[in-house]
Amino acid sequence: MTDAPETATLAAPKPSLKPARPEFSSGPCAKRPGWTAEAVAARAFLGRSHRAAKPKAQLKDAIERTARVLGVPADYRVGIVPASDTGAFEMAMWSMLGARPVDMLVWESFGQGWATDATKQLKLDDCRIVSAGYGELPDLAQARKDADVCFTWNGTTSGARVANGDWIADDRTGLTLCDATSAAFAQDLPWDKLDVTTFSWQKAMGGEGAHGILILSPRAVERLETYTPPRPLPKIFRLTKGGKLIEGIFAGETINTPSMLCVADAIDALDWMEAIGGLDATRARADANFAAVQAWVDTTPWVENLVAAPAARSNTSVCLSIVDPAIAGLDEAAQRDFVKALTKLLEGEGVAYDIGGYRDAPPGLRIWCGTTVDTSDVKALLPWLDWAFATARA
């Protein structure tokens, strides 16, 4: 933002150019450019058993394409599991935690949810919570190399991400469990530092909800095969049988029935990603979208990135604070009402849907800038933000 007197008069003309695609939700996210339901339906095995040869082969194809686009090492396992990213991460926690001390690194609502489950549901011994407020990162150096460390790579609800994995010890004896749901395909994930990685199709892929991706390192597989958790596991959390990994899960034999329409949709997104140049291209698109928003923020007096440290700013779930004194000086309820009025104006004009901040986050805006969003649409949105702010404030 730029400095401006508190008495500055804010006015903005109503723009004429609208985003071609106004979907800026942080999940489910925008479909890839050129997406059509007809193209997805044409390749989906609808009305077929997912255990039949061709549907099962398609599930395996989705797994293999995911690994290829993300550059997952050949000795890692990739599987499709129930219940989106939440199911994948909970599955890992319930199956693996308890063998060692645990450090929960928390800086937004989903990380707080994992910490709550670790302490109140799993009731783990020697479980530390290392936390920071929205827009900040905790002291990552506190992570113990002999502990299992659980964290979100990119805070979807706070817009704060870890810049890299340098803080994760190469000689760690504990596992790292990483919720990468809003980082996958948009940020660099150092696989040698990650033992369990989870995400869902509904974020950077622009896919549908209800399905999760679980990626396991050889060290994670070893934990599963050598550690028996002191708790009952429901069927959808079970990754081993007779002390051995259920390899079928990582070859297209899903634990429960998947939506083959969603599977076809995921493959459609992966096809597009490979066609535009793979991981380098998908990350570059997110970077360009974020750069457009941040350049506008840097010259706009009423708004600021919620994350003060540039290196920690997300390039996908970009969270913004309204810092205009007339609004920032209101109580929290009134600030939230203002954000609702602003976003209602945008939705009414058909230029931006679902960009209010997350319900547990500070009042503000959250604009999804992930891979499937076009930079031209981001740039078209920005004048509308100025217009909506001035209109709601008047």
From TrEMBL:
Transmembrane segments: none annotated. This is phosphoserine transaminase. Belongs to the class-V pyridoxal-phosphate-dependent aminotransferase family. SerC subfamily. Coiled coil: none annotated. Residues 1-29 are annotated as: Disordered. Keywords: Amino-acid biosynthesis, Aminotransferase, Cytoplasm, Pyridoxal phosphate, Serine biosynthesis, Transferase. Its EC number is 2.6.1.52. One of its GO terms (biological process) is L-serine biosynthetic process. PANTHER family: ALANINE--GLYOXYLATE AMINOTRANSFERASE (PTHR21152:SF40), AMINOTRANSFERASE CLASS V (PTHR21152).
